[in-house]
Write a structure and sequence with these properties.
By secondary structure, this protein is of the alpha+beta class. The strands form 2 sheets. Strands 1, 4, 5, 6 and 7 form a 5-stranded mixed beta sheet that branches. Strands 3-2-8 form a 3-stranded antiparallel beta sheet, with no helix packed on it. β2 (38-44) and β3 (49-51) form a beta hairpin. It contains 4 helices and 8 strands, in the order αββββαββββαα. 29% of the residues are buried. It has one domain: Nucleoside Triphosphate Pyrophosphohydrolase, CATH 3.90.79.
Length: 164
């Protein structure tokens, strides 16, 4: 997925624009609590599924800034309460968005970063989701069983195993 995403970016100057109908770069975050036991997920209103926070770049090539903005907007938490745990990309995923009343079929080349928010803070969310919640890592698959979420849970466990 990394190589295919890299090639997509090289081949499409407008890869950060959602108007590129065959696909476009998106950004999302795997948000952990300080104890590394839960991740922040939202029940997406349009897609009616649980996902990690994220969204379209809308022409912004600094995908980390896109991710931070999206997490702040979707969680309702100010940027001052969001901590970037690493400047390195945490995960890359390519997934198909199937036709709906909102979109034609296309692909998202999703660049993901690892963030932290204190789970003691109130998370008000916004109108883009029905609900937002801290999900125990061991329960993520009950909310969304996509392979990419399994992969991020596994990466989290591997990365922070020695911390626990």
């Amino acid at each position: 997925m990394v190589n295919r995403t890299r090639q997509f970016i090289l081949d499409h100057e407008d890869c950060f624009n959602r108007e590129l109908m065959n696909g476009h770069v998106t950004g999302s975050a795997w948000v952990l609590n300080p104890g590394r036991t839960h991740t922040l997920m939202l029940h997406h209103r349009k897609l009616d599924r649980w996902f990690q926070p994220g969204g379209h770049a809308d022409g912004e090539p600094d995908i980390l800034q896109v991710v931070l903005k999206e997490v702040s907007e979707e969680s309702g938490i100010g940027l001052e309460h969001i901590t970037l745990l690493s400047n390195e990309i945490f995960d890359v995923d390519i997934h198909t968005i199937y036709p709906s009343k909102y979109d034609e079929r296309h692909e998202h080349f999703d660049i993901r970063f690892l963030l932290e928010i204190d789970d003691r803070l109130e998370i008000p969310g916004n109108s883009e989701s029905h609900q937002i919640a801290w999900i125990p890592l061991s329960q993520v698959n009950h909310f969304n069983n996509m392979r990419s979420l399994h992969r991020m849970v596994r990466k989290t466990e591997q990365r922070f195993r020695s911390v626990a």
